[in-house]
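Page 42, continued from yesterday. The earlier attempt failed because a stray header line got pasted into the input along with the sequence. Redoing it now with the clean sequence only.
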Amino acid sequence: MPSYIYYWSPCLNKVGTVKSTINSVLSLSKYSNSKFVPVVINACGEWDEYKDFFKSNNIKIVNLSPFNYYKYLPKTGFIQSRLSYIIIFIFSFLPLIKVLRRNEVNYLIAHLITSLPLFIFYILNLNSKLILRISGYPKLNILRSYFWKKVSKTLFKITCPSLELLNKIEKSNIFKKNQLYFLPDAIIQIDEFKKKKILINNKEFDKSKKIVLSVGRLTKQKNFKYLIDEFEIFSKNQKDYILVILGDGEQKNYLKKYISSRKLDDKIYLMGRTENVYQYMKKSEVFVLSSLWEEVGFVIVEAAISNLFVISSNCPNGPSEFLDNGNHGILFENNKKNKLSESLETYLKLNKEKRFYMRVNLKKGAIKYTIFRHYLILKKLLINEN
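This time it went through. Structure tokens are written below.
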């Protein structure tokens, strides 16, 4: 008999968690030979645009709402997005209970708005097992610590995409050690990567320039203003480089105005969101992550698999682990003036052999983030408990 693995991941924006969910689901469908049947819970219509993709890959969808109210929910701004999460919580509460009671659900893997399944499993005696994915260290106070200790009894496993995060959570003494499990995100589809290795024709900027690339939502977390300031310092002496930023978000207009106010329009380009970051990565020389906090980061792994040299802020939860503490890339002190610009200068001073060595080893490290490797580790977790 197959095991039914349900995924709860009601996302507001196309963030990394969306890709993580899709690829995890796809890994079970593609490699398990029907031993595991993945099912995506569509809370408010957030997965509607992927229905054809799921259908073509034999992935089932369960709708909690008869109509799509996702398109009416505010998706940007801290307060607005929190309001949307509350709406999803309220409208999904009873429908999700019905799904968990009426359907054969062996496991529920929760990625986002995890408070709802946690609460349901806490108040009800369900046969299903709850697996919670945590991608960042929870902010703990007395009240939250009490809450987590209470609900932890309902959890079967907590998966973490980085060992650094797992060790940090283990030290909190809120969860039992045997509840914690290292599960790298499913980021890279090798077949899909090969298809997307298409070079772009950059009419927007000078082709003779060397590209420093950064990718991410234009939000406070990604710290793009700091990146712009640091690149301005770097570009004063290095005229051959331009900065290209891919992404969209609530800070888009602010960053555009800021770039213009600094008279950097010919050096820094906001290109918007793209479905195919690889086409830019294949034209770039260096990838920079400037985030204030981040897990391993999808874009870092994608940059590594594209043979880019990676420079990253030494922010919590994963980049330093992926870069082997600076042995396979350059880490700079988070959000400190001159540290990023100095790291770019350090990169320029490295000889070709050193750059090649660091890129090759970083690419080797990216292999564990393929969907097949993710499947093998997830299968071990599921089989050991079946």
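Notes: The CA atoms of residues 12 and 75 lie 6 Å apart.
Reminder to self: strip header lines before submitting.
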